[in-house]
């Protein structure tokens, strides 16, 4: 591992009304590593992911990305950072139903003002990598859940992000499709040296990571994999 973490969260506290979601969470993500964030329902995993990605600001504590304090940036700067440096995969419902799978994957590039032809050429390469090239002209509603997740992974990676945030990416899939999505996601991330922050409560899914962080009652604990 390189000396400097890419992403660093230090002593995060975040409450929703009277409910404390994070209560001193600390974690680091190094370039190119796959980290699983595990823990039971309500332990604070998604809140931690949202703070790491600058979607949510902590009440106290600091998140730095490449040495920059996310809280010190404007909302415009944070959303620009999310578009250029981060990719996102959620449990479901993330593809635009009116667009074809190819157009969905090309969308983040179009938002970066890349020409349609070039954006769709790169999108087609990513559909191929995720083994769903045959879905290019189909709309998300014409695909299976597993296929739609592979399209979503292609869309998350098409901008070559430095960090991919995946919140229960296999939560709506059967185990066979879940394994396939995880294999393709981690393979593509390793090929492009993207780090992955993977929120899951399934040990089998966490098995694809290099390292596990366990969240309990809003606090984190690092588990280093033995093998
Ligand atoms: N937007 C919100 N409004 C109110 N309470 C919230 C909100 N988001 C999270 N919480 C509360 O904060 C705590 C942590 O929630 P969080 O979603 O981070 O946990 P989680 O570990 O991701 O859970 P799950 O595995 O069920 O998704 C829970 O008590 C939850 O009810």
From TrEMBL:
InterPro entries: AAA+_ATPase (IPR003593), ABC_transporter-like_ATP-bd (IPR003439), ABC_transpr_LolD-like (IPR015854), MacB-like_ATP-bd (IPR017911), P-loop_NTPase (IPR027417). Residues 7-226 form the ABC transporter domain. It comes from the Bacteria. SUPFAM superfamilies: P-loop containing nucleoside triphosphate hydrolases. Keywords: ATP-binding, Nucleotide-binding, Transport. GO terms for molecular function: ATP binding; ATP hydrolysis activity; transmembrane transporter activity. GO terms for cellular component: plasma membrane. The keyword Nucleotide-binding applies. PANTHER family: ABC TRANSPORTER RELATED, IMPORT ATP-BINDING PROTEIN. This is ABC transporter ATP-binding protein. It comes from Microbispora oryzae. The lineage of its organism: Bacteria, Bacillati, Actinomycetota, Actinomycetes, Streptosporangiales.
